[in-house]
Structure prediction request, 426 residues.
Amino acid sequence: MIEASRVEAVAPAHADSPQTPAATRAAGLARLDAFAPRAGRIYAADRNTDYGPDADDSVSHLSPYLRHRLVLEPEAIAAALSRHSVNAAEKFVQEVVWRGYFKGWLEQRPSVWSDYRRRVRADLARLDADSALDARYRAAVEGRTGIACFDAWATELAATGYLHNHARMWTASIWLFTLGLPWSLGADWFYRHLLDGDPASNTLSWRWVAGLHTRGKTYLARADNIARFTNGRFQPTPDSLASDAPALDEPAPPPAAMPAAPAPLPSDGAPVGLLLTEEDGHAESLGLDGATVAGVATLSAAEHRSPLAVSAAVVGFTGDAVADAAARAAAHWNVTAETLPAGVQWGDALAAWAQRLGVTRIVTAELPQGPAREALDTAQPTLDTAGLALYRIRRPYDAAIWPHATAGFFKVKKRIPKLLSELSLA
Ligand SMILES: Cc1cc2nc3c(=O)[nH]c(=O)nc-3n(C[C@H](O)[C@H](O)[C@H](O)COP(=O)(O)OP(=O)(O)OC[C@H]3O[C@@H](n4cnc5c(N)ncnc54)[C@H](O)[C@@H]3O)c2cc1C
Prediction:
């Protein structure tokens, strides 16, 4: 049994903290608008420097919005390309596409996600059995390792729900190779705190640092690199950090297999219930304008990110994001929106809601691997018994990227010009 009280004793971010951004599409679009002028050469030149939580930097901070699809990847790419040439915006576009690449990679190998979920439980149980490992783990997540940069990033993560990409790479590397902690627990720690916490980007980035994604190739945090790219804020001594990063080893994941395209929603006009989750906050662009949407419901699985307690900021941000999505969808289709109770079986909640609405069809954006997908898969037998048909909509953006996410990012990167033209973005 996992100890529910294993929670970090560092300043937590609260959902209403002034540092927590508003979880609305309007706030995301405002952020995109403010960032777009810097999405070209400024971003490319300066994106690797982490100036600290209270300083301006050159990255977009769009990730919580993109992760919940309050802002869509094509919108972010289009905003960058409306201000900059394809060449100047190349780096930003590539970074946005990394997100879709990781999602597609995991969709094609769902067992990597289920193995991660099992591994987190097993490694948490190891902490109970190994007091030295437990002490190292607690010192790390509470920011008490004595490694100043690591401790500052641990505190920043808990206080803001965000870390700069380079800080994520250094933190993960120090966790693995200097502190000798299990990668799965590092991924779980990030996932419990990041407002942009994403099953694919987070799990696969940790695996990448550990040498499990690009097999055998690890990421080593070096003292001089940290000093340079924190603008001198941190100056670790070289001997305070591991000097090598031996790759972890694991059996290779099964071969990639692209999930079949979901069955289309029949166009016979029968009424549908529209289910919104934290995976997609912009139902208005799902292509449902020809459908008869009879009502909207929301469900969130944010609390199931981990066997441990998920930060209040994550639960708050996710709840606000689905509420914002529901309010917009309800206004768009002129129907009412219901927040279905958290903590119940999704199958029971959905069947009761569909009955209230008088529909036998539920439609939702396709849920990628993650806790919401697990909850919906578990609900499927109950939906079947209730005679409810579930339709999932795959966005053209995902359909364009996922099939190419079979190996490393390079294969997808090479296709970016084609992708931009297929999606009418350039
Ligand atoms: C160990 C580790 C864990 C991570 N966990 C997550 C996570 O849970 N969720 C998440 O969204 N990203 C994760 N990332 C990727 C990346 O760090 C963040 O997306 C990025 O820092 C978000 O800040 P930004 O929006 O200012 O990024 P920008 O630099 O402005 O990039 C624009 C957008 O591109 C995407 N992006 C940028 N870099 C990456 C990347 N390396 N991989 C995937 N997408 C990227 C994001 O959607 C981001 O919002 C992780 C990286 C590492 C090394």
